[in-house]
Amino acid sequence: MLIINQEYIIRVIIAGLLGALVGLERKTKHFGIGLRTSSLISITSCSLVLVGLSLEPTSLSRIIQGIITGIGFIGGAIIWKHKKDHQIVHGITTAACVWFLTAIGIFIGVGLYFEGVLITIITLIVLLLKRIGLE
Fold first, then answer.
1. Count of the separate structural domains present in the chain
2. 43 belongs to a structural domain
3. Residue 89 is inside which H or E element, if any?
4. Which position among 22, 52, 89, 97 has the lowest Cβ density within 10 Å, counted as fewest Cβ atoms?
5. Above 50 in pLDDT, residue 24?
6. pLDDT band, residue 1 (cuts 50/70/90)
7. Does 119 reside within a domain?
8. pLDDT (tens digit, 9 = 90+) per residue, 47-71?
9. For residue 53, how many other CB atoms are within 10 A of its CB?
10. Does any domain span residue 132?
11. Residue 33 belongs to what domain range?
């Protein structure tokens, strides 16, 4: 029997919206991931955390460890060197955003709304620094 937990639905929606904000910022600069991908990363990590909350307590920490490990592999695949000039590395900020989007999902998934919103605001400010020439 499927029982829909309204609090869990709210958490997934908030994680998706916060992820979308970061994705929108990245898309407007034409960098890396966009709105949909960013939302999906946050929604997925939030959903996995919610599964962990419904299991025994040790399962949640294992799920979070798995999320972080898995996203590390994805982040590593995003980073690449320019073939002509091996000194230029691309994708580091995008990889960091993917890692951050996972953190949003985890924060919101465990119910740390204020902290999730706060780190989103701080990250958006950091990403906007390049736009005003402070990077």
1. 1
2. yes
3. strand 89-90
4. 89
5. yes
6. very low
7. yes
8. 999 999 888 878 898 999 999 988 8
9. 17
10. no
11. 6-127
